[in-house]
């Protein structure tokens, strides 16, 4: 892990396209701004972990359960090819 000391208004560059800017420091909180291309998603760690957990859970559901969920969210309307096509 790289540990750097920065003051308010100073920044850190990651590669050519990501800049992390220290916007304020208040007691035990540091506010950072992140400039990056729109195609690079940025998440708080706890949100990213939750997304990973939900993705793993979704990958474990069976075909019948998936079709039931799909039917519930689409109102029973089919989209795309069916088994009879």
Question: Which bin fits the share of residues in helices?
Answer: 25-40%
Gyration radius from CA atoms, angstroms: 22 Å
Structural class comes to alpha+beta
The shape, in one word, is elongated
Summed over residues and divided by their number, the pLDDT gives a mean of 88
Strand content bin:
15-25%
Q: Strand-and-helix sequence, N→C?
A: EEEHH
Give the number of DSSP strands.
3
Largest sheet: 3 strands, antiparallel
Catalogue the unreliable spans.
none
Strand order of the largest sheet: 1-2-3
Tag the structure with descriptive keywords:
single chain; 85 residues; alpha+beta; 2 helices
Q: What report would you give on this structure?
A:
This protein is of the alpha+beta class and 85 residues long. The protein folds into two domains: 8-38, no CATH class; 43-76. It is 32% helix and 24% strand. The chain has helices at 45-59, 63-74, and strands at 11-14, 18-26, 29-35. Strands 1-2-3 form a three-stranded antiparallel sheet, with no helix packed on it. Strand 2 and strand 3 (29-35) form a beta hairpin. The longest helix is centred in the middle third of the chain and has 15 residues, at 45-59.
Question: Can you describe this structure in just a few lines?
Answer:
This protein has two helices and three strands, in the order E-E-E-H-H. The protein is of the alpha+beta class and 85 residues long. Strands 1-2-3 form a three-stranded antiparallel beta sheet, with no helix packed on it.
């Amino acid at each position: 892990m790289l540990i750097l000391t920065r003051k308010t208004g100073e920044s850190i560059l990651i590669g050519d396209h990501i800049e992390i800017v220290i916007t304020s420091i208040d007691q035990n909180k540091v506010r950072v701004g992140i400039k990056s291309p729109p195609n690079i998603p940025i998440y708080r760690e706890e949100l990213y972990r939750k997304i990973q957990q939900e993705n793993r859970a979704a990958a474990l559901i069976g075909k019948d359960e998936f079709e039931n969920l799909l039917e519930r969210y689409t109102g029973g309307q089919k989209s795309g090819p069916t088994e009879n096509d």
